[in-house]
Amino acid sequence: MRGLGDLEAVVMDRLWSAPGPLTVRAVYEQLREQRQIAYTTVMTVMDNLHRKGWLHRALAGRAYRYEPTRSREMHSAEVMSEALADSVDRAATLMHFVEQMSPEEAQLLRDVLARAGRASGSLDASGETSVGGAV
Questions:
Q1: Domain range for residue 111?
Q2: What is the CATH number of the domain that holds 23?
Q3: Alpha helices, DSSP H only, in the chain?
Q4: Which of 9, 24, 38, 59 could form a disulfide with 4 if both were Cys (CB 3.0 to 4.6 A apart)?
């Protein structure tokens, strides 16, 4: 998956933060509060994001309403997966990643790994084998 350019990332952030689909005009108005930008620039970026598969659009009257095709969390997971795939030594890469975590983030990771292990029928956090999610 190709990464996002600077303006694409800003537009995606606006759409991920929105409670629902947005028009180009709505995104333009939000961006205009923080930077000088042309409406046509925002329109082009959103059209490009649609063509790249980042945004879905539906015609509503005379304007398209755009929404992300994946959540911010799904995108973050894809970026993390790509970074790991680029590594020659995945264990070392994961170790460096974990070493940068706060204690709260490390505990969250342990909790997620335990849930994932139980869901897949592998060992849970206590070392017990679980089947079909039952512990």
A1: 72-120
A2: 1.10.10.10
A3: 6-17, 24-32, 39-51, 72-85, 90-99, 103-120
A4: 9
Tokens 């975590």 sit on residue:
101
Is there a single domain that holds both residue 55 and residue 80? no
Q: Which pLDDT tens digit goes with each residue over 70-101? A: 999 999 898 888 889 998 999 999 899 899 99
Rounded CA-CA distance 133/117 in Å is: 8
Q: Report the b/e string of 83-121 with b at 16+ CB within 10 A.
A: eeeeeeeeeeeeeeeeeeeeeeeeeeeeeeebeebbeee
Asked whether residue 126 is domain-assigned, the answer is no
Q: Are 61 and 102 found together in one domain?
A: no
**pTM for this structure?**
0.72
Q: Which of 33, 31, 58, 59 is nearest to 45 (CA)?
A: 31
Beta pairing partners, 63: 60
